Amino acid sequence: MVSGQRSINLFDTKASLTPGWQLVEQYLRIARQYMLWFVLIVGIVLVVFYGVIRFRFNQLEGEQKRLSQTIQNQNVKEGMLLALRARITSLNNILNTQFSVAPYIDTTLLLARPPKLTSFSIGDKNTVQISVNLPDIQEAVSMMEEIVKLVDENKIRTPNLTSLTLDKNGDIMMGLSYSVILKQAL
Amino acid sequence: MRLIRRIIRLYQSFIISGAIILFCLIAFFVGIIPGFNKISSMVKIVYEQTKTVQQLEEKINILNALDETLLESYATAAISAVPADKSLGTIFSTIDGLTSQEGVAVSGISLSSIGSVATEAAKKLSQEEQKIGVNIVPFSIIVAGPIEQVRNVVEKAVKIRRLFRIRNFDLSFDNKSGTTKSTIQMDAYYAPNPKNLGKISDVLKPLSDDEIQVINKISALPLVTKSVPIGTDSSQIQTEPRSLDPFSP
After folding, report:
1. N or C end of chain B, less CB within 10 A?
2. Is the complex ipTM more than 0.85?
3. Domain containing residue B151: CATH number
4. Domain identity same for B21 and B126
5. Which chain A residues are Cβ-neighbours of B217 within 8 angstroms?
6. In this complex, which of B82, B134, B151 lies closest to A105 when CB atoms are compared?
7. What is the value of pTM for the model shown?
8. Could you tell me if A101 lies within 8 Å of chain B, comparing CB atoms?
9. How far is CA A142 from CA A110, A138, A172, B129, B179, in A?
10. Do the bridges between strand A117-122 and strand A127-134 make them parallel or antiparallel, or are there none, so unpaired?
């Protein structure tokens, strides 16, 4: 029975509530209604959403297992590719540090050959040190001209006459050093 | 008792409302908030899983597109250039092949600080080895012959399939015989194969054009190795389990 309506019940339950409390009661009733609906709707939405997500999760898990198994079956190819890639990186690094040292000999042979060429050694910073034994001054001059030509052709750099000896027979012993321009081998 | 009954009767509506509101609050804090957190974490997991599945599908496509025979030929070429272990046999054999091809005599080969004949797993790499990413086996050879042929050895030593580097060399001349003797200090390389394949979900990319170019360059180099077949054993692939050396027999 709603309070305020006529009733055959002689014992009115709300009779003693003050109007202030009746207002509070009304608000509480509205609040509980909203809260109940909120909890119910959000709960249903969450349950539905959870169900969908769970279904998708299981689906993806199964798919992942299947794909992983397929990849596992191709282990050989994958291993080969990874090992090959690692090796190619190393090969590339090696190729980048691979220089042909033949120009050391090539440039020397352009200046003198054995037996005139008596010693040959390689020093720091691509430097070649040679000593040559020449029978006369004319050959020494022509060798100097050849050195200038090689410098002009950018085959050697910074040539230095390190020693020059003329013995009583007229033989000339010359010590020379120069830098060689090296190029990558491959 | 009557008093309690009266209070209950009087505040019945408050009690019901209070109970419902309390229930809603408990449901909110105990059910909805944890449920929301659980769902949001599951959404993240599903998102990650979706990405993983996509990666796996891409990986399978890449693996399916790989030509195993071609890969094997690449691997054989790569292994013959830089073996997985020191492979001293191939060093000697290559030097033998190179010098006999050029017609010079080898009067000595010496290997310095060779260490274990097999690959040392925990060997500390030098700075240079770390820079290049491979292990170095230093050795030297003494060759004798006409100077042009010695020159050819020096030239071709860095242009053959078993990759060598010339660190230094010298020449000495014997005017009586007209031969040139040279001590050539060289480096050979080896690089152990990777020991594991990584995770299944790791991204896999096919060989790039640059990588194929490098391997083609290596394949084009002449193989002067005599008698010892390089890399045929070591190019066999280990399949089980994933963590083992894929090239070891």
Report:
1. N
2. no
3. 3.30.70.60
4. no
5. 95, 186
6. B151
7. 0.72
8. yes
9. 12, 6, 13, 45, 25
10. antiparallel
